[in-house]
Amino acid sequence: MNRYPLWKYAIIVIALLVGAIYALPNLFGEAPAVQVSAAKATVRVDTGTVTRVEQALSAASIAPSALSLEGSSVRARFEDTDTQLKARDAIDRALNTDPTDPSHVVALNLVPRTPNWLSALHARPMYLGLDLRGGVHFMLQVDMKAALERRADVLATDLRNALREKNIRHGGIVRNGQTIDVRVRDQAARNAVFDLVQAQFTELVLAETTEGGDTRITATIRPEAARAVQDQALKQNITTLHNRINELGVAEPVIQQQGADRIVVQLPGVQDTAKAKDILGRTATLQVRLVDESAEGLAAERGIGAVPFGSERYLERGGRAVIVKREVLLTGENLTDAQAGFDGQTQEPAVHLTLDGKGSRIFRDVTRENVGKRMAIILFEKGKGEVVTAPVIRAEIGGGRVQISGAMTTTEASDTALLLRAGSLAAPMEIIEERTIGPSLGAENIAKGFNSVTWGFLVVALFMCAYYMMFGLFSAIALGFNVLLLVAVLSMLQATLTLPGMAAMALALGMAIDANVLINERVREELRRGSTPQAAINAGYDRAWGTILDSNVTSLIAGVALLLFGSGPVRGFAVVHCLGIVTSMFSAVFFSRGLVNFWYGRQKKLKAISVGTVWRPEGDATPAKAD
């Protein structure tokens, strides 16, 4: 009756082992570290960078506790913050020989101390939120007016080109803020402009006024189109911020929209606030220019002559010079998409670009007139330009679809596509709020949260043991298993634990023990009715299950609602709350019954069970078989 089959005990043992392994990394804490990543699109971080970092530390007589290449960054771990600061200065001097034009980002960070054998099992600690780990919080204001003016500027250029192609005469096109004014002198031209705009520029709405003998047509971006432009600008800025923050190696950064024109950025674990602001405020723009392939240009490229008048010298990946003409043919504003792929004929890695209407026309004309010549794509960051690629134009390219191919790997093609797609901001941003939470305050919050969970667990466990005796001990063990399982699940999901999350963890203890209280009281009730101890245990668990399920499902519904409609700290609370409900149902029912069955189920002639004092109603002479 009260015996588990072997496979159920196997599940309990496996859950216990998995929970212990994946919860264990949270005990090792974090170590001060220095992270090195690329500050420019053309700089690569590889094993050579690891060697340079190692040499720089050795020259400064600094021994890191660990040094490794992780993804696209190098991380050096140290035992204390004093050594960390000295190492940062030494590495910065070695890698960034020109302080005005740094090639690498050398940032302070915190990394887990997880042993290698746990890391090999993909056991990692939970991410800690800003309030627990310390870090920086930024509120960024997106200049939506500039985004709309930029869009109006693009539409004005496209409209001017479309009128020229249709041979529609006009008295000039002028952009005034977010509106476009077109002057025409006769009714035929007026009708032609209206027909063209309604056919090709559906996001514009027209109005007309008469001034003297001319008609002024005012084109304004429709409200729904303006909202789409603003939404797209916000999304592109968020994407760009994600790409930039990857350079800092921040675990679980929070980058989310707040309101119609603001972005919240939270960087847990970042200690170098100035470096974070520098990366967030970076401006990156793209330009397409022709390579100067004159005799003077080629001589300057080889370093045996001066740069010709009307040209400029830039470096490409690998440090080779490229002489390009000053005239800018296209900018990143003309690019709508960039994806990595392969050349359809040679199957070499390539980058496929999609241009807007204006860019398509310009690119078609440029490629038709410059077949066999090179075209350079230059990325500008902080006023410094570097050549991303300089392919040879093989034939005229029309239709707005462009392919860049050549001597590049699939990784380089992917990186180039990423830079071209999200290398610049769609609209300017300004930091309007900045907060820094120090690691000491985060450590204090962790200590307080840990103490609240620990004391809550101990008080509940002591009460259960005093009130329910042996069954109370089973409940306390199940409660400990619940905490272990909850921490393990949060670690496996790599969820972010915040201070509200720790509050939810403390609350989960009280909610989890409620199920055991229901079971224990049901067992007592069955004993009062005269049931044998084995029958009372079986009936107690079976009949309490319905009530436990109902109460937990209703709590889970509330938690899911918080998860769906909440944000920020509310979501952090909801995640732990929902997971705590699921783990508590497993531990309070399945696990605790396994303990009871293991302890009492083997006894065939069980006379009594230790479930605390059983009070009987007055006049009830039924003996209670309990200690």
TrEMBL record:
UniProt entry tagged with the keyword ATP-binding: no
Keywords assigned: Cell inner membrane, Cell membrane, Membrane, Protein transport, Translocation, Transmembrane, Transmembrane helix, Transport
Membrane recorded as keyword: yes
GO-annotated molecular function: protein-transporting ATPase activity
Localization per Swiss-Prot or TrEMBL: Cell membrane
Entry membrane topology: Multi-pass membrane protein
SecD export protein N-terminal TM domain residues: 1-98
A cellular component annotation (GO) from this entry: plasma membrane
Segments forming domain Protein translocase subunit SecDF P1: 234-293
Entry-linked HAMAP family: SecD_B (MF_01463_B)
PANTHER family membership: PROTEIN TRANSLOCASE SUBUNIT SECD, PROTEIN-EXPORT MEMBRANE PROTEIN SEC
Name of the protein: Protein translocase subunit SecD
